[in-house]
Write a structure and sequence with these properties.
The complex is a heterodimer. By secondary structure, chain A is of the alpha/beta class. Chain A has 8 helices and 19 strands. The chains are: A alpha/beta, B mainly alpha.
């Protein structure tokens, strides 16, 4: 293809698991290489594994490609192969155009030397000519925003300053193909914003991108193509949205690391299970009978998109007419409250269902629990509490404002009691 | 401040710059025909020359910035070594008779020249391992690391020239006026040998780290085997070994030139210089072949 800038053709890469094997095979390979003895490379020797196996894809000029996958899926290895740091054991990679890589910012910085000196050294390492660096020096310092400390040794820099300086240098390298490995995660919000803006500007100028990130919003915001890796194999190559949902399926699957501390299970079909409650907290006069979350069609569901409407149905058994205040919040896997609301509810005697409608649900990608707490109207006497789980939100992100988790609007949930 | 245009259109349209990565290493699509490898090696070196200088400045300034005594260190060790041998000479442990020049001058020149070899070799051997994370994270001509480290050996030696000058003044002798220039120029083969071995060892050390610990002992042993601090007795067992030791010729020919302006070792020196060149070519070829297989093992 004339306009493809990166062609990966049947590429495999193997690594040794232990240092002992690495030393042994390293010596063997070098000795064999020195005497021109060919070695069978398509077989694994003892203690080796395939980090990547038979990868094929093509990237065209001006595309922004997101490489996604779980830790150890082979994304970074792929990036290093594209950068020419590793050579493939099998297959072939062709690259057309000047390549710039941000595998780790600040790699090659010398801690004893000043920021200014390191700009020159790192610039040279990245292939810039001295005259070019001198010409761009002010712009680099300005982009990094560290004028004040440019003559201090970089070992006194904060990690944010380190990253800013590193990114500023690479940003001035004028690559035609830019490889980025999860480096934008560091740095403060303002600098990340600046980097993303800069990347967008590069993209408009026709620079080709390959990005490795675990932040699906970054991928969603910038990528025009997504590649999903799993255990060293390429599982999907196509639209970023589809690749992200492959990744999310993988992440939110049964082996997702959610703290399961089931206390008592509700077996009603479609209900959320009671995952956790504080036994000593509250009088437990009022009981949560059933908690379920339904989609726009009114059917119980465990999976939503960020902008779907969802209705939380809480069935409560109350021994008397009680004025209560209910706190309802969504807690994510990090046990962080993502969204919460409280509502004043007058309970009748007996069993009743409180419906709380969220339109939209406004949560980003992840797995959530519903936390419910029921108090009296003066908040002095807690009646009941519980965490109910789980449901997940897929294909997340607020598309309008990548890089933030802030909902673009806020609507008070509608509450009805039946 | 806006960044100047991030790329140039003419650079984008340059289709000849396609690079192909395979197991054998990187090459461009146009690289075919005879001597491809040699041409690639030379091009790599030319591309890397600015980086070599930059890394050299980095090593130099960080080395001397971090130590209080700085340059004084370069003097202390040779003075102690030479002093020890002077004591041994006086005690009759070694025979330093029959020298036309004062022993201290003779010994200081010897250790300084030998230091070109040891300092260069030590620096080169550690160069790839020390670059560690950089090797794995940035693609740049690795050869720059070894070349810039070998230059550190020259600086170390150059600093000790002050010591040599001081020795001449203290002992009220003078170097041979023409020989001194030839003497220093004739150190070039020693540097070539150092670089050749350094290119080889730097990659081997990346896989077998033990090498870095072995080098200091090995060079110390070599120093005793090579007549650096005492003249050799040709009839002794050591003398026979010495006849086949290129370091003997590469160090003693330049020293003879500096001190006397003539040397009996000319033939041996020329042969050793040729060997040095062969070692450099072999070491460089090995480095070029092996460097692509090293990043994943550092």
């Amino acid at each position: 293809m004339a306009d493809s800038v990166i062609t990966v053709d049947g590429v495999s890469k193997k690594f040794s698991k232990s240092v002992r094997h690495m030393m042994l095979y390293g010596t063997l390979d070098l000795t064999a290489g020195s005497f021109g003895i060919p070695l069978a490379r398509n077989r694994l020797r003892r203690g080796e594994f395939w980090a990547l196996r038979d990868i094929n894809f093509e990237i065209k000029r001006g595309e922004a490609v997101g490489l996604i996958g779980a830790n150890g899926a082979g994304k970074s290895t792929m990036l290093k192969l594209l950068n020419g740091i590793y050579m493939p054991d099998l297959g072939k990679i062709s690259i057309r155009g000047r390549i710039g890589a941000l595998i780790e910012v600040g790699a090659g910085f010398h801690p004893m030397l000043s920021g200014r000196e390191n700009i020159y050294i790192n610039g040279s390492i990245l292939g810039m000519k001295t005259a070019e660096i001198t010409r761009q020096l002010d712009s680099i310092i300005d982009f990094a925003g560290i004028e004040e400390f440019i003559d201090s040794p970089v070992r006194h820099y904060s990690s944010g300053m380190y990253v800013r300086l590193g990114f500023a240098i690479i940003a001035h390298c004028r690559p035609e193909i830019l490889l980025i490995d999860e480096v934008l995660a560091v740095g403060d919000a303002r600098f990340r914003r600046k980097c993303l803006d800069h990347l967008k500007q590069l993209k408009e100028n026709g620079v080709t991108f390959v990005i490795v990130s675990h932040n699906m919003q970054t991928i969603d915001g910038i990528a025009t193509k997504g590649i999903f890796f799993d255990h060293g194999s390429l599982r999907y190559c196509g639209t970023p949205g589809e690749a992200i949902s492959h990744y999310e399926m993988k992440m939110l699957g049964n082996d997702a690391p959610f703290p399961e501390t089931l206390i008592e299970g509700s077996t009603k079909p479609g209900s959320l299970r009671l995952v956790k409650y504080f036994k000593d907290y509250g009088t437990h006069d009022i009981r949560f009978e059933d908690v379920r979350i339904t989609n726009a069609q009114g059917e119980p569901s465990e999976s939503f998109a960020s902008f779907d409407a969802a209705t939380l149905k809480v069935t409560v058994a109350s021994p008397s007419e009680t004025k209560t205040r209910m706190y309802c919040s969504f807690i994510n896997e990090d046990m962080t409250v993502c969204m919460g609301a409280y509502m004043d509810i007058s309970l009748k005697t007996g069993i009743q269902t409180i419906k709380i409608k969220f339109d939209p649900i406004q949560l980003t990608t992840g797995r959530y629990m519903v936390s419910l707490r029921l108090y009296d109207e003066y908040l002095t006497n807690p009646y009941a509490n519980g965490h109910f789980g789980y449901f997940s939100v897929m294909k997340g992100g607020c598309v309008e404002t990548p890089g933030t988790n802030t909902p673009y609007c806020w609507r008070t949930p509608e509450v009805t009691i039946a | 401040m806006p960044i100047s245009p991030p790329f140039r259109m003419e650079a984008m349209n340059n289709q000849s710059s396609e690079i192909i990565y395979t197991y054998a290493g990187p090459r461009t699509a146009s690289d075919t025909g005879p001597f491809v490898k040699t041409r690639l090696m030379i091009r790599e070196f030319i591309d890397a020359r600015e980086l070599i200088i930059r890394l050299f400045i980095r090593n130099f300034s960080s080395k001397y910035r971090q130590s209080v005594l700085g340059i004084v260190w370069a003097f202390i060790i040779p003075i102690i070594t030479v002093g020890m041998f002077m004591v041994m000479g006086n005690a009759g442990v070694i025979n330093v008779q029959g020298l036309k020049a004062p022993y201290a001058v003779y010994a200081i020149i010897g250790t300084t020249f030998f230091n070109l070899f040891t300092a260069g070799l030590t620096a080169c051997t550690g160069s790839i391992v020390q670059a560690g994370s950089m090797i794995v994270k940035i693609n740049f001509p690795r050869i720059a690391l070894v070349f810039s480290s070998s230059l550190m050996g020259i600086v170390d030696t150059a600093v000790r020239l002050i010591l040599i000058a001081a020795a001449f003044i203290v002992y009220r002798t003078a170097p041979h006026p023409v020989g001194v220039l030839i003497g220093f120029l004739s150190l070039i083969p020693l540097f070539i040998l150092t670089l050749g071995l350094g290119l080889f060892f730097s990659l081997v050390a990346a896989i077998l780290r033990d090498l870095i610990n072995i080098i200091p002992f090995a060079t110390m042993g070599l120093m005793l085997l090579t007549p650096v601090l005492y003249p050799i007795d040709n009839s002794s067992a050591l003398g026979v070994v010495t006849q086949y030791n290129p370091l003997h010729y590469l160090i003693n020919f330049p020293r003879d030139m500096v001190l006397y302006g003539s040397s009996e070792l000319t033939t041996g020196y020329i042969v050793s210089a040729i060997i040095s060149c062969i070692v450099l070519i072999a070491g460089w070829q090995f480095f070029y072949m092996a460097q692509t297989k090293i990043a994943e093992r550092v």
